[in-house]
Amino acid sequence: MEKILIINTGGTFNKRYNPLKGELEVPKDGIAVESILQYCNNTSYELLNIIHKDSLEMSEIDRELIVKTIQASSCRKVLIVHGTDTMDVTATFLALHIKDKVITLTGAMVPLSISTVEATSNFMMALGDMMCREKNGVYLAMHGAVAIHGSIYKNRQKGIFELC
User: Fold this and answer.
1) Which of 136, 135, 104, 137 is nearest to 122 (CA)?
2) CB distance 7 to 75 below 8 Å
3) What is the rounded distance in angstroms from the CA atom of residue 109 to the CA atom of residue 58?
4) What is the pLDDT of residue 144?
5) How far apart are CA 160 and CA 84, in angstroms?
6) CATH class for domain 4-163?
7) What pLDDT is attached to residue 1?
8) How far is 59 from 161, CA to CA, in rounded Å?
9) Distance of CA 111 to the CA centre of its chain
């Protein structure tokens, strides 16, 4: 079984309510992703928790770190949990720098800590697709669709991702 590198960068997917501050925060852990992975008994993976930011706060330096992390891995397949607001920016950046891997970005618009449905669905759809996808490229997996980056976008008026 081919090992999959899972990179958790934060985003809404991971957010939890901080009762002391009265706001949702991106924690510096992987509890959200780990809570789903506990049910993936037939999956060989390595989980790396890096960056820990809302995607609106991500910088070019953060994207370079993602590229370096992927390039340093022997895994050919990479699943990235990422915030939805700049997922497309990161996907384009990755496509410019990495040509020899299968990379899929996914996330959630509702934190797993609030409702498990969307985050779990998006993650498992991305993981399942990745397990059988062979063609190198950068893909997005959101709201029932997996497609090459640039052909699926966040429709901010509807609050969903759609195919172009």
Assistant:
1) 104
2) no
3) 17
4) 95
5) 10
6) alpha beta
7) 82
8) 23
9) 13
Q: Which residue has the tokens 């939890």?
A: 16
The mean pLDDT of 145-159, rounded to a whole number, is: 95
Mean pLDDT of 105-126: 98
Residue with tokens 């049910």: 39
Share of residues in the chain with pLDDT > 70 (%)? 100
Q: Which two tokens stand for residue 20?
A: 């002391």
Q: Taking a C-beta distance cutoff of 8 angstroms, is the pair 142, 84 a contact?
A: yes
- pLDDT digits over 27-61, tens only? 999 999 999 999 999 999 999 999 999 999 999 99
What is the pTM assigned to this prediction?
Answer: 0.97
Residue-averaged pLDDT of the chain: 97
Domain boundaries, the chain: 4-163
DSSP the chain: ---EEEEEEESGGG-EEETTTTEEE--SS-HHHHHHHTT-TT--EEEEEEEEE-GGG--HHHHHHHHHHHHH---SEEEEE--SSSHHHHHHHHHHH--SSEEEEE--SS-TTT-HHHHHHHHHHHHHHHHH--S-EEEEEETTEEEETTSEEEETTTTEEEE-
Q: How far apart are CA 93 and CA 132, in angstroms?
A: 24
